[in-house]
Amino acid sequence: MTNPYRGLLPDLPAYACTNCGHWQRWPAPGPLVCPVCADVRNALPEDGFEFVTPAQVEELVEGFCRPTAVEGVTEFGTHPRFGLDSRGWVIESDAGLVGFECAPWYTAGMLAQLRRMAAAKGGFDVLASSHVHGYGALWQLQQELEPRTVCVGVRDLEWTKAFRVTWPADDELQLAPDLTLHRTGGHFPGHSVLHDRRRGVLFCGDSLKVDLDEAGQPVALSAHKAFHAQIPLSHGELREYLTVVGALEFQAVATPFELVRGVTTDHVVHLVQRLLAGPPDAAPVALEDL
């Protein structure tokens, strides 16, 4: 079926910030400032802003997709690093594939693989993201694959000029059987996490920062309003976060950058309780202390 929203997608050229990877639709010759880098939650480029077109990004990166340690979850990404180096998670469900977060760019090979997966697994009708740091090339997937549902928290619509949101999410929204979006707020007003109840995975966006050792095992957790500036969450934000995440059962987390086994509900609850017990703090806490 033809996507009725296709003709409503922005028709301006797309440009990516080389510092963070954020895509903007902007009249030629392109934007002068990246709103994501200019925001307090990201770092400014020391040598000034630079923006590249889709054709230029195609020359800069190669794509990959690979199964993860969790069955039914596939990782899409690019190398070498571009922007924030986000990952796109594709999750199998009883209603077809659900995409959460996106890679910085999707090569022809990556798009072909997604189309094969969609044909084998019941379609690709749902695409969502936790917040702007996980958007990657979401606009490209909407343009190329035409999912009927593109979902972002309603309080974060200001960051979505590169694509069209077809389902603004409030505090809770079921995207597919056993896959439910929950607004945590905190990092961004509309920041949301995706809970995979069947697999016990929390696609946590930037509600958590996971420190890994050289073997890729989790060793510490932290939570931030702004990671680069080391601004902690307020106590009010932490209490709201605890109310949401504390009610979800999981044994693994997926940030916009990695999927990690061994981070559980109890770890996150104890982290937030610890942060609520004293002055706001953005420092990592060892997992063994949680």
From TrEMBL:
This is Metallo-beta-lactamase domain-containing protein. Pfam families: Lactamase_B. Signal peptide: none annotated. It comes from Geodermatophilus poikilotrophus. InterPro entries: Metallo-B-lactamas, RibonucZ/Hydroxyglut_hydro. PANTHER family: METALLO-BETA-LACTAMASE FAMILY PROTEIN (AFU_ORTHOLOGUE AFUA_5G12770). Residues 158-229 form the Metallo-beta-lactamase domain.
